[in-house]
Task: inverse folding
């Protein structure tokens, strides 16, 4: 029997109201915490919730981890100098406003500060990883008691190696008996930062590019901000280069100031409104989802880039279970790995498929909560003793307890055997 039409209309209305409420909630969260508009440039916020006690008799005995490097400078000289060049051209053409001259001076000062440090870890990045290590030690002291092993590995990128060093040195300061090994080797790159050629080809779809460009055009509106800098509208349209790119460059520089020592003395809040930051964040949020998450037009398979990493996590954990005090395995890498691993695990429903990029905020899909600077995924393992074969695992995303699409007992604690069975089966879909 079909439901009456008025009931269907009511259900549709309630769904629309719920989606609108989600979008408004995301916006209000960012109004309360403006750093969240930075997306993957957002400084690490630290844990936002308290941890729950494990089931009776179970004790933490091992940690496995993958973490992104800490706060950094922007990646290239062009990221800093492209807007500088555009405003200098406007100045030469005689159409740079007083606000434009002031902004140009700020940009030049920032570019000078960043020169020779592109992509490098900042002081804040070091402190972020020291803080994560300190809380890891404090939350799970049983794991780090005595001369236990800590195996730490990094990708070959200096900011990741330094993030690893700051974290393990903090652990060593808390317990000088720890037996720490560190490494950054080419042979580990097959799981630490795997580049899957088949999935990369799927990202080159013309249909995907068209869908993202359409979305981009609906959320990015640079005119109002650029007209504060340049008095000639024709120059904005034709003389300064890609005005959308310059506008997004300004957003990126302004957002990344929060990761550097200049954030206390410089700001672009007199130029860019909250709506500017929010719209640029929407664009970035859409880009990350379109190219790395569960978007159907990228093949819907991008998270499977982390099959090697997840298999490494599983295999390394299984070997650790044979030791009385296995300690910790720490890995240090990059944002795209955090995102795709979170989607592969479907942590907090992050891996779900959303067909319309304009609905991401309505669906409460928020990249800032997944991979800010120093973001991390921690696997905390529990048992009674070494004879206990019923090992439990808890997942933390950025030190906050997370849910998985398998039955918890009770959630957020999951039987390791269920975890392994579920994800080994899931990965078979890609490796066939």
Result:
């Amino acid at each position: 029997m079909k439901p009456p039409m008025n009931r269907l209309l009511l259900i549709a209305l309630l769904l629309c109201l719920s989606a609108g409420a989600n979008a408004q909630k995301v916006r209000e969260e960012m109004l309360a915490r403006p750093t969240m508009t930075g997306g993957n440039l957002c400084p690490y916020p630290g844990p936002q919730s308290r941890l729950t006690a494990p089931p009776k008799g179970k004790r933490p005995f091992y940690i496995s981890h993958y973490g992104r490097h800490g706060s950094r400078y922007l990646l290239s000289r062009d990221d800093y100098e492209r807007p500088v060049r555009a405003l200098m051209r406007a100045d030469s053409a005689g159409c740079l406003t007083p606000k434009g001259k002031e902004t140009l001076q700020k940009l030049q000062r920032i570019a000078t500060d960043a020169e020779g440090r592109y992509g490098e870890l900042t002081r804040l990045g070091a402190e972020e990883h020291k803080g994560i290590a300190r809380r890891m030690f404090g939350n799970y002291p049983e794991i780090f008691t005595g001369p236990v092993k800590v195996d730490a590995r990094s990708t070959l990128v200096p900011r990741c190696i330094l993030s690893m060093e700051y974290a393990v040195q903090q652990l060593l300061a808390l317990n000088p008996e720890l037996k720490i090994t560190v490494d950054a080797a080419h042979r580990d790159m097959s799981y630490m930062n795997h580049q899957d050629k088949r999935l990369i080809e799927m990202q080159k779809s013309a249909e995907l590019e068209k869908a993202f460009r359409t979305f981009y055009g609906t959320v990015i509106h640079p005119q109002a901000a650029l007209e504060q800098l340049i008095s000639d509208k024709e120059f904005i349209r034709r003389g300064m280069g890609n005005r959308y790119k310059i506008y997004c460059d300004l957003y990126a520089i302004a957002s990344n100031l929060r990761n550097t020592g200049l954030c206390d003395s410089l700001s672009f809040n007199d130029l860019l409104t909250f709506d500017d930051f929010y719209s640029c964040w929407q664009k970035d949020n859409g880009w990350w989802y379109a190219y790395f998450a569960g978007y159907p037009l990228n093949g819907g398979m991008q998270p499977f880039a982390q099959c090697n990493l997840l298999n490494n996590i599983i295999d390394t954990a299984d070997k650790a279970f044979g030791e009385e005090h296995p300690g910790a395995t720490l890995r240090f890498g990059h944002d795209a790995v955090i995102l795709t691993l979170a989607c592969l695990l479907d942590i907090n429903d992050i891996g779900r498929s959303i067909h319309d990029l304009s609905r991401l905020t309505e669906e409460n899909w928020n990249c800032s909560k997944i991979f800010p600077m120093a973001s991390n995924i921690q696997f905390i393992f529990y048992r009674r003793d070494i004879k206990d074969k019923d090992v439990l695992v808890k997942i933390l995303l950025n030190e906050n307890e997370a849910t998985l699409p398998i039955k918890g007992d009770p959630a957020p604690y999951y039987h390791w055997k269920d975890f392994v069975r579920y994800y080994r089966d899931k990965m078979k879909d890609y490796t066939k």
